Predict the 3D structure of the following.
Amino acid sequence: MEKLKKGDVAPVFTFTDQEGNTRSLNDFLGKKVILYFYPKDNTPGCTLEACSLRDSYDDLRGMGFEVIGVSADSAKSHETFKTKFNLPFALVSDTDKSVLTAYGVWGEKKFMGKSFMGIIRTTFVIDDTGLIANIIDKVNTKDHAKQIMQLIEM
């Protein structure tokens, strides 16, 4: 599969939100979306990233953005993570890795000399027409919201 790039149509997917409603990325046409992919709930870097987006959520919403997080964790894990850190946005459980694969963020990673398959931390900024406006592949977990807002202001 060819790697997604700025200007491409964002792959559409459906998910169940925290209220149990089935949603589609198409439901967000007319709004901008911050779609962020992260490795695992309740890990240090992923928690910093989620909390950064939580802390700036009102500012991001004021700029017209919806925030959606995606990982391969279970819905139950997401529910616990959302509650523990009071996350106001949807977390998508992609246990079959179909969304991760569609966005090209499931791949080989290296850590301490070992190779393994996993989620490559990446954020896609999607415009109101469903096109990828920006891709962040070097995520600053601690200040991710600020990183996104600086990118948007360019």
Summary: The first strand starts at residue 14 and ends at 16. Residues 12 and 26 are 7 Å apart (CA to CA).
